[in-house]
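User: Sequence in, structure out. Go.
Assistant: Echoing your sequence, followed by the structure tokens.
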Amino acid sequence: MPRPFDNDAMPFYATASEAALATVSAIASGFERAVLRPLRALHEARLAYRELMSLDDRQLADIGLNRSEITQVLTAPQRIIERRPVEPAPANLNDRSRRVA
């Protein structure tokens, strides 16, 4: 446990300008972390939303998305959307061999 006036406990600055520069640097770093990163992420999400919405349904299907899933994918990208494969409908709906009992 550091003693109250231990030189290793607090950084030593030779001049007041070095101390001021360290303070300003810490404030800028905190501002970047608290304000700029979330704003940048929001901007990138809006760009991705616009880009995905500009695709037609065939292009969305090629990347495995429906138009209704775009918002969900952008707000929770870490979640894996699991889908069951869609079985195609038979060409002849009277074909009983393909029906499931």
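User: And one key feature?
Assistant: The two ends are 73 Å apart (CA to CA).
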